[in-house]
């Protein structure tokens, strides 16, 4: 079971209904939230990925279970998300973060993490960071990673403010990672 | 990249209706601006009574079962959804005159226009599709 913010039941519906329903459901999500679409239409596998690309949302992945496809899409605002300035000063490359001593903290949503993360990375989604900070050790070096470096920038600032000193924002982030991926889905 | 999709619906069978409305709703759901120009038999697809009785091509009637099994929405339902998503319907004035039809014969919310109306819209649309 992969965590999502909103679930949409589109089972039994034929094309183009899963897309139409997804479009409507997406309207009720806030930016950064993850929508799970349950569909039986085999065309939905290719269609939802293409739809996400066209509209500018992040297609995370699809998992099939007993003939039902579970699709995960994260709502993005294409006009702002990529353009946000990163302000946390301590940064490190993907390669550097993997090589150096310390832990990799993945602040993407649980679904993004489930579909592929750096082996050994710890998952704390950005929205849960403030209440789960006690799971982190201040003595350890923390390499914060997300997809493009924007959320990890904010998370690194949040950690620094809370007294963590050995914090680095990993750039470019998972979008530029080509190494081995660990998955929680088949 | 153009954000407009222009569609010409020139045929009036059930299969034609699905081709037109499926592509149109999918495009509209992908945040495209969509306009459909209904001409000749294509006017059937938005005719108040006609759209409920669209025929399958001769010899293909056995597909009715497949439509039911695949849970494909009915045409009036698809049409309403397309309008809901902002798809614009233009009925061809010239064809209406030839067939003796008026705007009242068609579903609400359509506009009536000529070839130039469509050409003006379609000049910077990509793709333009004909069914």
Automatic annotation (TrEMBL), chain A:
Gene3D superfamilies documented for this protein: Rhodanese-like domain, TusA-like domain
InterPro entries: GlpE_sulfurtransferase, Rhodanese-like_dom, Rhodanese-like_dom_sf, Thiosulphate_STrfase_CS, TusA-like, TusA-like_sf
Pfam families found in the cross-reference section: Rhodanese, TusA
Entry's transmembrane regions: none
Domain Rhodanese, chain residue ranges per copy: 98-186
SUPFAM superfamilies: Rhodanese/Cell cycle control phosphatase (SSF52821), SirA-like (SSF64307)
Protein name: Sulfurtransferase TusA family protein
From TrEMBL, chain B:
SUPFAM superfamilies according to UniProt: DsrEFH-like
Superkingdom per UniProt: Bacteria
Pfam family, one: DrsE_2
Signal peptide: none
Name the UniProt record assigns to this protein: DsrE/DsrF/DrsH-like family protein
């Amino acid at each position: 079971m992969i965590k999502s913010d909103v679930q949409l039941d589109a089972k039994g519906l034929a094309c183009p209904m899963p897309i139409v329903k997804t479009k409507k459901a997406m309207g009720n999500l806030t930016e950064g939230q993850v929508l799970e679409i349950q569909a039986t239409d085999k065309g939905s596998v290719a269609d939802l990925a293409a739809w996400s690309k066209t509209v500018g949302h992040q297609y995370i992945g699809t998992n099939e279970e007993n003939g039902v496809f579970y699709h995960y899409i994260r709502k993005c605002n294409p006009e702002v998300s990529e353009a946000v300035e990163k302000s946390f000063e301590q940064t490190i490359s993907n390669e550097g973060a993997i090589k150096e001593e310390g832990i990799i903290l993945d602040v993407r949503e649980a679904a993004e993490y489930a579909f592929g993360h750096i082996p050994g990375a710890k998952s704390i989604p950005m929205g849960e960071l403030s209440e789960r900070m006690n799971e982190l050790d201040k003595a350890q070096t923390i390499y914060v990673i997300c997809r493009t470096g924007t959320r990890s920038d904010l998370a690194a600032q949040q950690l620094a403010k809370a007294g963590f000193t050995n914090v680095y924002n990993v750039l470019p982030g998972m979008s530029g990672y080509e190494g081995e991926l660990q998955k929680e889905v088949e | 990249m153009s954000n407009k999709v222009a569609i010409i619906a020139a045929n009036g069978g059930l299969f034609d209706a699905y081709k037109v409305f499926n592509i149109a709703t999918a495009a509209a759901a992908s945040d495209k601006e969509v306009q459909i120009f209904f001409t000749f038999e294509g006017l059937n697809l938005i005719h108040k009574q006609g759209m409920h009785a669209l025929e399958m091509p001769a010899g293909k009637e056995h597909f009715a079962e497949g439509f039911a099994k695949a849970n494909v929405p009915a045409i009036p339902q698809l049409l309403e959804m397309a309008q809901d998503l902002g798809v614009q319907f233009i009925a061809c004035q010239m064809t209406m005159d030839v067939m003796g039809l008026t705007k009242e014969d068609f579903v609400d919310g359509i506009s009536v226009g000529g070839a130039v109306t469509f050409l003006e819209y379609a000049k910077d649309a990509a793709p333009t599709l004909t069914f």
